[in-house]
Request: fold
Amino acid sequence: MHQSLCLDKLTVPGYSRVEVVETSSSTNAELATAVRSDPAAWPAPSALVAEHQTAGRGRAGRSWETPARAGLTVSVLLRPRVPAEALGWLPLLAGLAVVRAVSDGGVTAAVKWPNDVLLPAVDTIAGLGLYRKVAGILAEVVPGTPGQRTTAVVLGIGLNVSQSAEELPVPTATSLALAGYPRPDRTDVLVRLLGEVHAVVRRWEQAGGDAAAAGLLDEYAAVSATLGTRVRAELAGGAGVLEGEAVGLDGSGALVVRSESGEERAVTAGDVWHLR
Reply:
C-alpha cells in the first residue's frame, strides 16, 4: 500500500515554505499562479508538494498522472541570482540532485540530457539503452511577478517511488521500489531531494551561474548516461535531426553533439535518443 507523507518529518533546512496538498492538477501550474498572485507568500526557495497529481505537465506539453501517494510530485520556487543565459542549467542541476537523493538508498542512477533521471535495467530498450526512466523534470520561468528583482523559476520534479510495474504509464519507466530501493519512504526521499536541490543550486549561484567553476559540470558528467554516447537529436520546432556523439555541455547547459564530419553543434532543446 502506498504511504502518505509524514508532515511531522517535513522540516527542510534552507526552505522558507513547504506546502503539501492532497490533490493538484499540476504543481508547476498551481505554484506559478500562486507566485504571480502573491509573491511575498512564496519566498525562495519554497516548495509545493501534491499527494496526487492528476494532470502533470512534461516537456513539449506532454501530460501524465501517477497513482495517489505512489510517487513524489513537487515543484520548487527559485529566484536564481545568475545570468539569464545560465538558466538552462536548472533542469540539469535538478537531475543531479535527484541522482544524489536516491543514491543515498543504494540505487545507482544516471541523468539523461536534458531532463530525465534513469535507473539501470536488465534489458535494452530503444532510445534508453540499458536504462528505465524513474524521474522527469520541467523548469519554467514565471512571468509577471511584480516587485521582484530576480527571475522566478518553478522547477518541477516527478519521481516514481513505490509504483508496481502495472501502475507505470509506459514500459520505459520504473520506480525506486522496482529497482530494489530498500523500503522507499516518500517523506525521507522528499526531504533528501529538496536538500540536494538547495545544495546544488546554492553552489551554482555562488559561482555566478558558472557550473564548471562550481565543479557541477564535472559532477554532472560523471553520472551522465548521455555524454560519450551516440545520440539522435530531434530538434525543437521541427528544425531537423542531428546524429553524432554527445561530447559535452556548454556554458548554458546545451548539449554539444559532434557529427561524423567533425562539426560540433549545441542542442538547446528537443528529444534526444541514445543510439546503440
